[in-house]
Amino acid sequence: MMFNWLQKLGSRVLLRLSSLGAALVMLLQSLLVLPGPRGWQRLTQQLYVVGVQSFIIIFVSAGFIGMVLGLQGYTLLVDYGSEQAVGQMVALTLVRELAPVVAALLFAGRAGSALTAELGLMKATEQLASLEMFGVDPLHRIVAPRFIAGLISLPILVIIFNLVGVYGGHLVAVEWLGVHSGAYWGNMQAAVDFSDDVMNGLIKALVFATLVTWTALYQGYTCVPTSQGISEATTRTVVYSSLMILGFDFILTALMFGGL
Amino acid sequence: MAKKWLEISVGGLLVAGIAALLVLALQVSGSHLGGASGQYRLTALFDNAAGLSAKARVTLAGVTIGEVDQVSIDKQTLMARVDMSIDSAVDYLTLDSSASILTAGLLGEKYVGLSIGAEEEVLADGDMIEDTQSALVLEELIGQVLLNLGGD
Amino acid sequence: MSQTNLIEVRDLSFARAERLIFDKLNISIRRGRVTAIMGPSGCGKTTLLRLIGGQLQPAQGQVCVFDEDLSKLSRDRLTSLRSRMGVLFQSGALFTDLDVFENVAFPLREHSSLSEDELRDQVLLQLEAVGLRGARHLMPSELSGGMSRRVALARAIAMGPELILYDEPFAGQDPIAMAVLQRLIRALNDQMQLTSVLVSHDVAEACAIADEVILLGRGNLLAQGAPEELLNSNDPMVRQFMHGHADGAIPFHFPAPDLMTELRTESGRNQARSSGVVEAVELN
After folding, report:
1. Domain, as residue range, for C208
2. Confidence (pLDDT) at C267
3. Which residues of A touch B28 (CB under 8 A)?
4. What phi-psi label fits residue C41: left (phi over 0), alpha (psi between -120 and 50 degrees) or beta?
């Protein structure tokens, strides 16, 4: 009984390891090649799908999150008479944590799931097999531009998230609650360091972009090509990406901002 | 037309990203373009610079005129050495100006406050402010009060 | 190797998920003819097509196409070999983000250096051959099933292949579309001196255009010969498939224990259940 259980656990671990290996091989195979003559065009196409189409959701969420931070920060700090520090709080929370994490979660839901479903459908309708028969490697043609587009898009979306969030906080704290505008920006500028805070946030964004896009493409590329298989793969993309984003966020935070 | 729109919007996203990064650098983190140009450096030694850190404001009569670059230990005197960058428009800090470490509000951040003396000559790049007053350390203050009470 | 055989499969074994699909299969397909590979669903017809296209690797044995053993070819050689084959996938497999014109132009853009004008002429000629020149601006989602297969056919012949593989070309088509496809397959084969291999389980349609029929079953070759020969065969399994009898050598029932014993234990275990449930079990 015990032996059986151990055996099951062992084979599961092996299975996970082998699929991790397969995912790594897929990533390397798709990237270790020069883009073809129309590579830029394909990349632009994917930047549109992955980046531009995620813009609105990022913009709106960032606005609301900035406003909530402004409101919460104000009510918390006003008790200590330090409400002018609200700018510092909004900016640091956003730049270091919330912008990369929330943007990556939204990105996984919006772009990641779409990538998985798209690749799964291409597989189900034999488009990938068909490419192969025309002597075109689907990893280079389909997977690579989508991966690179994800890598470029998410950091840009995070930068925009930061800025929109900071102005959302400004709207609530300064315009509505009457914190002095100079104090809002001044405290923020004194507290936020470009290379320590903004850049570390962007490194997080880059790591999350790799995780989400990679997961999404691998799940789509290897899914069972039926409608049920595609829907399961899409769910897995969102679940795995979200867990990885949160887990890696802790690791990265510990490495970047210390405390452990 | 659809293709044009696609390319324009992707270009727009990239430009928006770069512009947003620029605004983040300037407006949010307060970086300065071109580094030290338009500024000059002053140094001051304090007995105690507790709570003061790089990027803290330097003010004159409550107006920000520069920022702290670095807080370190001066090896000869074993005092706290504070390097500051001052806006070069502020060229009227006299040689006998004094610097003190102040606190914004009861729990607020520390900053350096300068006040101007009576000399004719003014401080130039690399000069040192002689007259300094250290940070107020709450624990020491409480200790002094208790000591005074005990002496009564 | 012989001049007349374009495809030779020798001692091929292939398993998927521990189920043996082929067990030492030997077949040969002759140049210049229309060969239909038939067999009941799940006997590995499409798998065989994938093996011939080099998209799957055999566990054992050889698949030789154009006198080359596919499993021994390098990636580049396989790619150049594939440019001599055209494949019509079951679903058509048109690229959904390209319109009809661009779909047909795709292999030309990939593998030839035609100028834009030459390419346009070439694509229009291929579309004309399948009767869809007027539909060149439509997207794949706007096409009917039969039309997308015809576009896919135009795309498959665009590079002037020597061999075309058809995966279930007649499945799910209305009678008119079926007749159109039949005519196209036969006409292309004869006019372009192609070799055509089609996988199908539509006996009548496939027999009507095939020169030769290969019947697969139970992981191996059941019969090979001209359509009439197989239709008049005395072998019970061949007869059953070719004439479409529900029960026979290939049983109607999936292997199961005896019905009455199973029903008894079933009803014995569920005495509280109504008789309606027992009836449902019986139907299953």
Report:
1. 1-84+163-180+191-252
2. 54
3. 91, 95, 162-163, 166, 188-189, 192, 198
4. beta
CB proximity A11 to C under 8 Å? no
Beta bridge partners of B57: B67
Which 51-70 residues of chain B touch chain A by CB within 8 A? 55-57, 64, 67
Mean pLDDT, residues A24-51 taken together: 82
List the structure tokens of B89: 């428009």
Tell me the percentage of chain B whose pLDDT exceeds 90. 9
- Are C85 and C53 a contacting pair, CB within 8 Å? yes
Using one digit for the tens of pLDDT, what is the confidence trace for B16-61? 999 999 988 888 877 765 444 578 888 998 888 888 887 788 888 8
Are C248 and C167 found together in one domain? yes
Tell me: do C104 and C151 sit in the same domain.
yes
- Identify the pLDDT of residue A51: 92
pLDDT score, position C113: 82
Task: Fill in the amino acid letter for B9.
Answer: S
**Residues sharing a CB contact under 8 Å with residue C159, sequence separation 6 or more, in sequence order:** C83, C86, C107, C108, C111, C112
Within chain C, which residues score under 50 in pLDDT? 1-2, 272, 274-284
Any C CB within 8 A of A133 CB: yes
Which of A171, A212, A253 lies closest to A54 in space, CA to CA?
A212
3-state secondary structure chain B: CHHHHHHHHHHHHHHHHHHHHHHHHHHHCCCCCCCCCCEEEEEEEECCCCCCCCCCEEEECCEEEEEEEEEEEECCCCEEEEEEEEECCCCCCECCCEEEEEECCCCCCEEEEEECCCCCCECCCCCEECEEECCCCHHHHHHHHHHHHHHC
- Whether B contacts A, i.e. 3 or more CB pairs less than 8 A apart, is yes
Quick one: closest CA in B to A84, which residue? Answer: B108
C63 and C167 together in one domain = yes
Identify whether C229 is part of a domain: yes
Evaluate whether residue C92 is within a structural domain: no
pLDDT tens-digit map of A44-97: 999 999 999 999 999 999 999 999 999 999 999 988 878 888 998 999 999 999
**Which residues from chain C sit within 8 angstroms of residue A130, using beta carbons?**
87, 89, 93, 95
- Percent with pLDDT over 70 in chain B: 90
Domain locations in chain B as residue ranges: 1-31, 39-143
- Please, how many CA atoms are within 13 Å of residue A160, restricted to the half-sphere of its CB? 25
Structure tokens at A214: 């990679």
Strand C195-200 relative to strand C163-167, pairing: parallel
Residue written as token pair 């077949």: C27
Residues C80 and C218 in one domain: yes
- Lookup: tokens for B57: 């404001």
The predicted-structure confidence for A196-231, as pLDDT tens digits, reads as follows 899 999 999 999 999 999 999 999 999 998 999 999
Which of A44, A248, A70 shows the shortest CA–CA distance to A172?
A70
**Following DSSP, what letter does each residue of A11-38 receive, concatenated?**
HHHHHHHHHHHHHHHHHHHHHSS---TT
Which ipTM value was assigned to this complex? 0.80
* Residues, chain B: 152
Confidence of residue A249 (pLDDT cuts 50, 70, 90): very high
For residue A28, the distance in angstroms to the closest alpha carbon of chain C comes to 17
DSSP state of C254: P
